[in-house]
Amino acid sequence: MKNEIIPSLLLTIVCILFFSGVYPAVIWGIAQLAPNKGEGFVVKATNGKEYYENIAQSFTKDNYFWPRPSAVGYNANGSGGSNKGPNNPDLLKQVQDRIDTFLVHNPGVKTADIPIDMVTASGSGLDPHISVQGAMVQVARVAKARGLDSKKVDALVQNHIDKPMYGMGPERVNVLKLNIDLDNLK
After folding, report:
1. Apex 58 CA angle, 56 and 64, nearest 5
2. Is residue 186 scored above 80 in pLDDT?
């Protein structure tokens, strides 16, 4: 019995010290090398409010570009997906409801033209980006709601396309930064 208890206690003590002291210190040290020292990037809107550009915000009005749906209600206190499989009836109904809502607010768009990221949540529920196609399919709605020329809104989207980091991954658009600049568009 002594041969099992002492090693177990020692392992517990080593794990506590490592995972509550050494590991967080190493991660904090690595974060200090990152841009903005791992604090995130703050964007100031025209209304004076500050937002983190790497956390999705909820936009539901027709005069703004909509982000991806969020499984966590855009609450940054905890990220996560719905954990529902692709054949889950609740998820399928939720996606169909999102498609129906998107079509009501974007007349002239066909179901087949709605990019998947506009009706499904990301794994974190906080993804601040949408695909270029997701932004472009909303241009007509946003331009009409703001009384702007759609070419002007299209050009704004084109200016907000982020190229993939190190050439890997798809191009994408940060919805928060796009909407902030949209408010400044005349």
Report:
1. 105
2. no
